[in-house]
Structure formats: structure tokens, C-alpha cells
Amino acid sequence: MVRNTLLLAALAVTSVSFADDFGGGTGGAIPDATVDHVTPGLISSTITPSTGGMMVTMFNSVTVFGLNHTWGGDVQISLTNGSNTVNLVHRIGSANTGFNNFGDSSNYGSDGTTGLTGRDYTFVNSGGSDLLAAFVAAGSTVGVAAGTYNRSEHAFATAPGNTGLDFTVFTGVAADSDWTLEVHDWGGGDTGSFSGWQFNADVVPEPGSMAALVIGLGALAARRRNRK
Ligand SMILES: [Ca+2]
């Protein structure tokens, strides 16, 4: 009876979604653009979690650790799973009149023009601070504070890399899949780096693994009946 009770308790617990961090994403230098607005630099990093069959019920956030860059308006950061790409930020401060402008010159990370200390930035669909307002308020060599900011796309709606998607597109996706962070630098002359990244999502067992658990519970109950 104890084993049945434990299994029932496990079933009850695993039926409820819970938030978890999926980390270990590597960082590195963000290569500089080779042609302004045309040929960006790129670093990509993939996390493939091993949850034993969890499914995303709500994708909450992405945190980029130790991010620094001397010209924030150069930087596009996006997350891809399968055929869906969601921008966390895309050339903050760029005008909505076209793609060929350099965006806001304030820093990710600390104040200064070289040797910046990185800061941690978390991107959410809503409920965070306004990143554009933070950049506009900062001076050209001033770093924007670490914190939680609402994600955004390039202000020019048809800019290269804009997808029109937000984190809700990841609802129902298998957690144990490839999640790829891409950081592009679209403007020549300023660079940066980051030290790593993670994402946070609410997850539940996938329907297949739930069915296996129920079948296993049923088999155990049947075995107990046979022993009577
Ligand atoms: Ca650059």
C-alpha cells in the first residue's frame, strides 16, 4: 500500500506544472559586424535540456549573464526552437523609419568605452521594465542597469530578423529539444561579450510519459490484486 500511495502522490505532483530554470548555455565574444546593417557578426549557443519528457506550458523568460557591449544599438538577441524565432531585443533605439541606423549608443554592462563589466539581463513578454526607456535615459558611455526588461523587436516593423513572435509560441514545445540563443552585432566598430544564458519555463510531463505512469500504476494495482 505504501508503494501505491507513493505512486499516487508522484502522479498528483507531476500533474501540476512548475517553473524551472534550464541553464548551462555558454557565452563568448560577440563578433563585430563586417558590413553595417548587412553582414552582422554572430555567436550562437544551444541548450538541450534532459528532463525525461517535460512539455512547456508557459515560457517565462531568458536571462543573458554577464552581457556587455559598448553600443547597445548594435545588438540583436533572439531565441530559436524549431522553426520559431523570438527576439529578446533587436537594435534598441533604432528609428522606425528604416533599418540603416545605428540605434542607441548606451552600453550593456558597466559604464565606459573599453573593458566593460557585464551585467545580467532578463527578458520577459510583459511585466518587466521598459528597456528602450532605460537606454534613452542613459548616456552614450553609460551602462543600463541589470534587471528584468520586456522583450522587443526592431522598431522598423519589416527589419531583417523581425518575426512578430513572442514567447507564447513556445507553449506545447518539448523541453528536451534544442533551444538556440543567437546574438548578432549589426554595426561595425563596437563589440562586447556575454558569459552564459538560461531560460525559465513552466513544464509538465508530456502526455506520453503521463500515460506510461498511469499504465505502470495500473499494472502495480493488478499485481497486488493477483497476490491476494
Ligand atoms: Ca559592433
| Spatial order of strands in the largest sheet | 1-11-3-7-9
Mean model confidence by pLDDT = 91
Total beta-strand segments: 11
CATH structural fold name: Jelly Rolls
Shape: elongated
Ions, cofactors and other ligands present here are: calcium ion
**Unreliable parts:** 4-13
Kindly provide the name of the CATH class. Mainly Beta
Q: Structural class, judged by helices and strands? A: alpha+beta
> What is the percentage of strand-forming residues?
35-45%
Largest sheet: 5 strands, mixed
Count of domains: 1
What is the helix tally? 3
Q: State the helicity in percent bands.
A: 10-25%
Ends apart, CA distance between termini: 13 Å
Helix and strand element order: HEEEEEEEHEEEEH
User: If classified by CATH, what would the architecture be?
Assistant: Sandwich
